[in-house]
């Protein structure tokens, strides 16, 4: 790709804003980190009670053996997909508008995988049981497939995150080196790998990124497909579905896009990146999220119509508990609040604003966690024999660990934002450039940019 000739003043502002979080730390940052550490500390205490007394301190029992932990595992692994997967797909299609948020999306992938991978370990009760899976694991078990799939995806995503960081590490080394702390100078120098920006280095870097973005797409799709097989290959009536693979992948991208939008809005405000993360990124991601409301709606309709039409076996009980019974409130909140309302917000030009799209993203994230909870808990609640259905209520231990997981996710993002530029400075400057003023033709300043004006999706 040819580099653009951007105005020097604009590039200077881009570099200054992009590197500002690395240059100084305010009091609010430390207060926020202290709050997150306090929540994590309480979660660690709750986990210590579980280690000491066993899973009896949770609401899990023999009939409903998966609950908040596994629902959260699926949720975090899900939101990790839209990061690297969406970034790779958009790079392949050469959608330049996304270069401002690519780094944030890749942050989400790595952090969500780190946090999500903890939940199966927590759900085991005793962490030493993980060694049993390695030593005595059955290769025909989807649980073992999941371990290898997630490990492969985390490794590939970390490499994919690191490669575009190299030029920005070199920029931080050159711009902040003399004034930064010694450990920061060492970090920037070592991580930059001797980058000087020569044509050969640029060619090698873009070739490496191209290879990784092609490789990571099938890996990302396979990961959540394998996660879905943990349910679909379990002998439970509510999990008896052949479309779980496609359904889980679509749901992962759906919730992941919402996570990107929310993180983008937060970092845009805190890091003062309004000039470089504009309405263009919000609207285009909103369009993608709106498209997935249709896909998710179709998948739900197909699933419930086919099973509901036949109503065989234990499906009448499952339908009753979702539609009008114990889980009716979260189920209909998921349908209306997670699919209908976000779709209407994005469809209506009056509400298709930054604040409207962020509101839709928040609704999607909340309801998609509830959807995972319904799959796990409501599915396991369906009786296998003629006995009264069991019940499940998360204990304070489970809720504390869940809060700690979200706090750990926020803490890792917070630390990443302090160590690394949250936008890919070199890619925005070289391959996207400034957006034209509203009403001005896109070709007036940068003829090679093509249709990159406000609202372009290609």
Walk me through the structure.
- By secondary structure, the protein is mostly helical.
- It has helices spanning 8-23, 27-53, 68-92, 102-116, 118-123, 129-136, 142-162, 165-176, 182-191, 199-232, 244-270, 279-310, 315-323, 328-347, 354-381, 396-419, 425-432.
- It has a single domain (8-434), classed as Formate dehydrogenase/DMSO reductase fold, CATH 1.20.1630.10.
- Helix content is 70%, strand content 0%.
- Helix 4 (102-116) runs antiparallel to helix 16, helix 11 runs antiparallel to helix 15 (354-381) and helix 14 (328-347) runs antiparallel to helix 15 (354-381).
- Residues 440-458 have low confidence and may be disordered.
Summarize the structure.
By secondary structure, the protein is mainly α.
How are the elements arranged and paired?
Layout (H helix, E strand, L loop, with lengths): L7 H16 L3 H27 L14 H25 L9 H15 L1 H6 L5 H8 L5 H21 L2 H12 L5 H10 L7 H34 L11 H27 L8 H32 L4 H9 L4 H20 L6 H28 L14 H24 L5 H8 L26
Query: How big a fraction of the residues is strand?
Result: under 5%
Low-confidence stretches: 440-458
Q: How far do the termini sit from each other?
A: 16 Å
Rg over alpha carbons: 23 Å
Main sheet specs = none
Structural class: mainly alpha
CATH topology: Formate dehydrogenase/DMSO reductase fold
- What CATH first level would be assigned? Mainly Alpha
Kindly report the average pLDDT value: 85
Number of helices: 17
Total beta strands? 0
Please tell me the CATH architecture by its name: Up-down Bundle
Quaternary structure annotation: single chain
Pattern of helices and strands: HHHHHHHHHHHHHHHHH
* CATH homologous superfamily heading: Formate dehydrogenase/DMSO reductase domain
* Whole-number tally of structural domains: 1
Helix content: over 70%
Shape: globular
